[in-house]
Design a protein that fits this description.
Blueprint: E1 16-17, E2 20-21, H1 30-46, E3 60-61, E4 73-76, E5 82-84, E6 87-88, H2 94-101, E7 108-112, H3 118-130, E8 135-137, E9 140-141, H4 144-147
Parallel strand pairs: 3-9, 4-7, 7-8
Antiparallel strand pairs: 1-2, 4-5, 5-6
Length: about 150
């Protein structure tokens, strides 16, 4: 930034009062405007590249002992549709539906599409957790035969 004080000359800017020259301080805003315009151009070029969301791939696990039990399965599709054992259900009625259709359920399996956004999964696990139902997330086993 630069400041102009006009020295002792009037230069047409200051008014003389009782024989003293008044100084006029000017701030040079050109560098500030240059920086702001460069930042604006950078933002405009990169804004379309930003992706709002994070891609999560369901981890593959090596098979251990078979742990599958008969429990209700809540499936969340890529579009966010929630089903309970292949029948569509509202997220607010999910816990009540599980308790009424499966009164002795030890827990619930939650299976989601690999490209499902995290928000519906988090909401489903929250609703089931509030109803004191244990949540088990379904993962995909590694295909050992395909690796050979």
């Amino acid at each position: 930034m630069a400041i102009s004080t006009n020295g002792g000359s009037n230069g047409g800017y200051g008014a003389r009062r009782r024989g003293h020259a008044t100084s006029l301080a000017e701030i040079n805003v050109t560098p500030f405007v240059d920086v702001v315009l460069v930042l604006l151009v950078i933002f405009m070029l990169t804004a379309h590249v930003m992706e709002f969301g994070i891609e999560v791939d369901v981890s593959k696990v090596r098979g251990g002992k078979e742990s599958a039990k008969e429990m209700p399965v809540v499936t969340i599709t890529r579009a966010g549709l929630i089903t309970l054992n292949e029948k569509p259900v509202n997220i607010h009625d999910l816990a009540a539906a599980v308790k009424s259709k499966f009164p002795g359920a030890a827990g619930v399996y939650v299976r989601a599409d690999r490209e499902t956004i995290w928000d519906p999964i988090a909401q489903v696990t929250y609703e089931l957790g509030e109803a004191k139902l244990p949540v088990n997330l379904v993962t995909q086993p590694v295909d050992e035969k395909a690796k050979r």
